[in-house]
Every structure is written in C-alpha cells, then in structure tokens.
Fold:
Amino acid sequence: MIPGFAYRKRFSDLSEQDILALAISSEEDDARIYRTYAHNLREEFPNSAAIFDEMAVEEDGHRSALIELHQKRFGDVIPMIRREHVSGYYARKPVWLIENLSLDRIRSEARGMEQAAEAFYRKAATMTQDAATRDLLGHLAAAEAGHDEKAAELEATHLGGDKRSSEDSDAHRKFILTWVQPGLAGLMDGSVSTLAPIFATAFATQSTHTTFLVGLAASVGAGISMGFTEAASDDGQLSGRGSPIKRGIAAGVMTTIGGLGHTLPYLIPDFWTATVTAFFVVFVELWAIAWIQNKYMETPFMRAVFQVVLGGGLVFAAGALIGGG
Structure:
C-alpha cells in the first residue's frame, strides 16, 4: 500500500458533517491561494491583483455560510478534515508557491480551481439529506459555476479600457526579456561559435570520436560561460529584464543545446555520414534562429536570415578551411 494513503477516507463514506468540514477547509485554502496570487501580482499587475483580492473575499463569504450551517446542525466543533484526507478528492497543485508564475498561468489555475470546486459541491449535494444543507451546497455550486461571469465583471471593473491589454503587454514583454532574449542569444552563440572548432577538428582528424569530444567540451563550456555571464551582467532591477538566475539558465541551456545540435551527429561512426548529418543540422539550426528572431524579436525575416545564416556560413567555412588545411 502506498504510504500516506492508508488512512484516507473514501468520498462516498463521508458523513454530512464531514462534507461540511471539508468544504469549510477547502474554501479557506482557496481564499489563501487567491490572496497569494494577489500578493505576487500586486507590484507588476495591480489591477489583476485587485481581482484576486475580491475573489478571496468571496471565498471568505462561502466559508462563513458553511460555518454558520455547521454550527446550527452540529455545533461549534468542526472536524479537522482536509483534501489530503479524502481518497479521490480533487487536489490543488502547489503552483501558488512559485512566485514568478506568468499572469496567464495564474488566470488558468484560478479557472481550474473554480471548476473543481463546482464539481465537488454538486457531488456533495447529492450525498446530503438535509434540505438546508442541500440548498446551500447547490447555491455554492452555482456560485462557483458563475465565477467566470463574476470574473468578467471584476475584469470590467479593474481591467477596463486599456488596463487588460496593458497588463498582457507587460507580461509578454517580461517573458521576452527574461526567457526569449537570453535564450535566443545563447542559441545563437552555441550554434555559431562552436561551428569553427567542431568542423576544424572534424576535417583535421576525420575522427568522429575526437570531433564529438571536442564538440561536447565546447558546447558545455560555452553554456556554462554564457550562463554565468548573463546572470552576472544585470540583476534585472532597473532594466526590468527579470530574474538573473532565470536568464542565466535560459542562456546557458540554450547555448549548450545550440552546440550539441551539430555535435551529436558525430556519435555516428562513419565520418562522412556524420558530417553530412551535421551539415543538415546546422542548416536547420540557423533557419530556426532566424525564425525565432522574426517571431519574438520582430526582426524582419530577411534581415534575420542575412545576419544568422550568412554569419553562420562564414564561421563554418572558416572552420572547414582551417581543419582542411
């Protein structure tokens, strides 16, 4: 038996008091999650934070109504029962612990929370015999189902006019500056800067094993160097480029990937098969970089092609000439 699951109750075995206690603890948890979202969004997205503040207040109202009903039916002592104590009960992924969730991800998680809560209340209502309990649970199910409409009303209040588009634009800009820009720089550096040493080694030795080792060392070394350089270059406080750790990871990982792309073909024992495969990979890499520049950095496609493909081609030619000489 899996540890931690031996003492869970089945949902079908819960008493009506258990159901009310579970609903109370769930509403309390959800209110805390919404307040955490609001806290994490407040500095950059104050209008969206206000929406989650109001949603937390609404969850507080649901909890108060449930407590009042529990007091009338069962007294003041509420059993300690939470989601993790019930087998099959919907779980909350602890994503609210991640401080830098994107705005879209937070909105998506909130919609999922409301849908799961609605399903719980509808199921719970069918398991109760007391008319007042069934009525309240049905009312709460309807309230959870109506949260999309409520959210729309709150957005109209707090994100009216250009506020929503402004926040979305800020979130997109932060994504570009934190992840795409350093990742793209790393991909370009890894793809282009490793071309010369890899192909110089390939043509000089015609040994796939030696070429692979040189390419692996160059890729990993460039990734470490690029990652630390990016992380140390800017703490992001004034530039708004976001966490230096995230930028360093993006730059370092993509630099390594860029170099490994045309290194891995040299795991093929036959030299010319490996080299032709590496040529093809380089071609794909350079065009992919041009496409990313065009899509995310809004660089005109032909200019991106000229910069990346021509530059990469020249580096490749230098490596081939040096190795062949």
About this structure: The longest strand covers residues 9-10. The chain has a mean pLDDT of 81. The CA atoms of residues 33 and 118 lie 17 Å apart.
